[in-house]
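Quick one from the shared queue. A colleague (R.T.) flagged OLC1v1007626C1 as missing a structural entry in our internal table.

Convert sequence to structure tokens.
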Amino acid sequence: MGRKFFVGGNWKCNGTSDEVKKIVTWLNEAEVPSEDDVEVVVSPPFVFLSLVKTLLRSDFAIAAQNCWVRKGGAFTGEISAEMLINLGIPWVILGHSERRLLLNETNEFVGDKVGYALTQGLKVIACVGETLEQRESGSTMAVVAAQTKSIAEHISNWSNVVLAYEPVWAIGTGKVATPAQAQEVHSELRKWLHENVGPEVAASTRIIYGGSVNGANCKELAAKPDVDGFLVGGASLKPEFIDIIKSSTVKKST
Ligand SMILES: O=C(CO)COP(=O)(O)O
């Protein structure tokens, strides 16, 4: 079964309403491969979700960058999965390393969130990835397997899940993983899914790479067999994001 190439743009905590309108304008004007060949999802900050939803072309989808772990209520400052569904937002990014490291989100908490978001009908981009210290001590696979296990325990239907491998040392640093490094972890993650979830889920789940992806390095990464797309930070705020979307064509020729 073919895995449709997936390109996500994580805008993080960036942008004014004028800047957001400008980004949407160049996204709307871009000529990109058909939605049969590439799935594009952009993730603005919560406060701009409605604005982007009103303006964005219909072949691109929208993701929130987080949501609360369970049903809404007395949780000041949080946004619930139900609210996202109510706004017509189909996707949410969960377990991003910036939230794990800066806001102390644990594997268990991320797993709970993934489970709850899925039960509410959201599709989830679930993020995993090791720090530089963990990589250098040789524990990359143990770390990403433990993160994936906590997530997998809460998933009964994988068709609404994309797994994002984002090595922390590559995020926002300009230090991209080499295509071989990305392929190695992606193929290990697919093997983990094969052994712990099942062969069909392993074959059909998109595993995307994030960490300093840009217009210049995306094609080489996209050419790797287990790289099914990207989660892009900084470069998703710039027109080179279109080149990253177009790197999906590399798959058709391989
Ligand atoms: O964290 C990321 C996407 O979620 C990657 O960020 P950069 O592309 O800015 O390194």
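The first helix runs from residue 17 to 29.
The chain has a mean pLDDT of 97.
Added to the table.
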